[in-house]
Hints:
The protein is of the alpha+beta class. The protein has three domains: about 25-95, no CATH class; about 110-150; about 175-275, Herpes Virus-1, CATH 3.30.40.220. The protein contains nine helices and eight strands. A four-stranded antiparallel beta sheet has the order 3-4-5-6. Helix 3 crosses helix 4. The longest helix has 27 residues, at about 25-50. Residues about 1-20 and about 95-100 have low confidence and may be disordered.
Amino acid sequence: MAEWNTRGFQMSVLFERVGSTPTVPTKERTNMSKKKKRKEKRIRRKRDLGQVFSKEFLQREYLGKRKSEAMIAKEANCWPSSVYYWRKKHEVYTHSRLAPNVIDLTGKRFGKWLVLRRADRKNAADVRAYWECQCACGTRRTVVGGSLQVGTSKSCGCIQKYDNLRGYKGLYISYWRRLKKSAVDRGRVFEITMPYAWQVFEAQDKKCALSGIPLFLTAEGAGKGHTASIDRIDPTQDYVVGNIRWIHKVINRMRWTYTDEEFLKYCRLIVRKCGMR
């Protein structure tokens, strides 16, 4: 008696004489032949469908007559997945991706992007509309038209360049985030950027706009070392370009929502009263 392993289980084969070769059982041989026949059938079926679903046929039925994959599969007596396979293989794309009317975006602005001209596609499979754009900082880049119209692409990235852990030059991001959150919590519009705020700070020679006291910035944005504070020139307006300046934090706390005229009026009264003593 000899032991013979076949597909995970053991079969015993009796030999009548020494040296005889074991043969595959009839049942196992039948299963192997059935699997081989099924595989050959699938190959023939796939080859036949490839002849039916030619590129011209799919363009005529799928794009021309606007038939769905299920309708085409039902007529061909096959699964919709077969239509999908040959449609992708022949690069016959969906109706929405082959929209013939592409909106001309030349000359339009999207954020900091200015659309210059239509750009070439990256490959034949990608049928999206590409546009050559120029950012306000001067950078040129090819952008997808859909990203421009939806608003997911507004610049080359220069808007976020200063928005990192280091902040912008001497202006720390931790202080800037707290300042912005405080303005939003009070219901104020906050449209200024860190580069603009730093430009105003340097234009004032890093001194208080009302007293001339030197101002200092720290990462914490609080404590004795930090004395700079952004002030709105017109308290009734928001944090917008042209309405901010840097003053000492103590003066800003004293001024609060008063105008310059009202604040100076009370300061003169205090000085006059103290000088009379």
